[in-house]
Design goal:
Keywords: Methyltransferase, RNA-binding, rRNA processing, S-adenosyl-L-methionine, Transferase. This protein is of the alpha/beta class and 378 residues long. It folds into two domains: 190 residues, Vaccinia Virus protein VP39 (Rossmann fold, 3-Layer(aba) Sandwich), CATH 3.40.50.150; 154 residues, Helicase, Ruva Protein, domain 3 (Orthogonal Bundle), CATH 1.10.8. It is 38% helix and 13% strand. It has 14 helices and nine strands. Strands 4-3-2-5-6-9-7 form a seven-stranded mixed β-sheet, sandwiched between helices. Strands 1-8 form a two-stranded antiparallel ribbon. Helix 2 packs parallel to helix 3 and helix 5 packs antiparallel against helix 11.
């Protein structure tokens, strides 16, 4: 084929790709930005029906795109607040409601969801960008006043991690942290062909109902313990807590807390919202050795199905950072402290437990037992 023929063929291929990815008004959707528009009206209606929207509700929508879901939400809700990053979609959304009875019911916020201050809302109903699933979820859970429920479309694998129970293969730190703060249930699975352009993965809709009030525990302490445990989720806690790096970090915290005379329940804590948001991060607790071949992938890949996932575990050298307020020691852990840790584990029957099968109640009891012995994880 001649050079001109190749250019013509290339131009035809590009136009075909644009038409395939085009939606309302000829807008081209960008997979790199997580723009996969839900096109099946039956699925859209099912999501709205399962949301339980009241006529008095303010509904938050994240990433409304061209407004297929938004228009259905406006039929049911008192008001819809839509947060959209793409200025083209903002204009398209405004165009769709212009001159209709819904124009006064829709508020569009042009900005990045992770950076904007959220207004009051009763429900969140959204088909979100999958590459920010974890931080987005915990930003919602940190919002005050707490909302009634969130009905969110996630990548299917991520959704299954959210709802996993002890003993399930996908049970992880993500499940434990989310279920500490909310009741989570799976509503429906949505195939990739219901979207334009179709992603490389299936999706699922999940209902999240925040617990009122949230559990009265130090959340940063909780997350430190859970991160450590799930770095070795299929090994016993006795084995996990016998590693030298873990014991050294815990002993430094122990010495620091003793020196500051901060007993259990007297620690200085970050504000609740900051603590909740931290549960969605993938960084490791200071000084904790969580390395293992059982590393836990909590963040789902982007809707394109490529890309890496955020991982709970990291190698031992990367995890061995300095405990806050403490100097790193290269010496051995004192026998007395090691005995104290093992005594806490064996007294509660935790030494032979495996995190992959532990319930919320197990983790809460373990944290309380450690804190009672002045052993802390933050």
């Amino acid at each position: 084929m001649s050079g001109n023929g190749l250019r013509v063929a290339g131009g035809i291929a590009k136009r075909a790709a644009k038409q395939k990815n085009a939606g309302v008004g000829g807008l081209e959707f960008h997979k790199s930005k997580g723009q996969h528009i839900l096109k099946n009206p039956l699925v859209v209606q099912s999501i709205v029906d399962k949301s339980g929207i009241k006529s008095t509700d303010v509904v938050l929508e994240i990433g409304p795109g061209t407004g297929n879901l938004t228009m259905k939400l406006l039929e049911k809700a008192k008001k819809v607040v839509a947060i959209e990053l793409d200025p083209r979609m903002v204009l398209e959304l405004s165009r769709r409601v212009q001159g209709t009875p819904y124009q006064q019911q829709l508020q569009v916020i042009h900005g990045d969801f992770m950076k904007v201050e959220l207004p009051y809302f009763d429900l969140c109903v959204a088909n979100i960008p999958y590459n920010i699933s974890s931080p987005l979820t915990f930003k919602l859970l940190a919002h005050r006043p707490a909302f009634r429920a969130a009905i969110i479309m996630y990548q299917h694998e991520f959704a299954m991690r959210l709802v996993a129970r002890p003993g399930d293969s996908l049970y992880s730190r993500l499940a434990v942290n989310t279920q500490l703060l909310a009741r989570v249930s799976h509503l429906l699975k949505v195939g990739k062909n219901n979207f334009r352009p179709p992603p490389k993965v299936d999706s699922s809709v999940v209902r999240i109902e925040p617990r009122h009030p949230p559990p009265p525990i130090p959340l940063l302490e909780w997350d430190g313990l859970v991160r450590l445990a799930f770095g070795r989720k299929n090994k016993t806690l006795g084995a996990a807590f016998r590693t030298s790096r873990t014991l050294q970090a815990l002993e430094q915290n122990y010495i620091t807390f003793k020196a500051l005379s901060l007993g259990a329940g007297q620690q200085q804590q970050q504000p609740a919202a900051a603590s909740i948001a931290a549960l969605g991060s993938s960084s490791e607790p200071a000084g904790m050795d969580v390395s293992d071949d059982e590393d836990d992938d909590d963040e789902a890949a982007a809707a394109g199905g490529s890309s890496s996932m955020a991982v709970d575990g990291m190698d031992a050298d990367a995890a061995a950072v300095q405990a806050p307020g403490a100097r790193r020691t290269k010496g051995k852990v004192s026998p007395e402290f090691k005995e104290l840790v093992m005594r806490v584990l064996t007294a509660g029957g935790f030494d032979q437990m495996r995190p992959a099968k532990m319930t919320q109640e197990d983790f809460l009891k373990l944290l309380a037992d450690f804190n009672a012995a002045d052993i802390h994880f933050s």
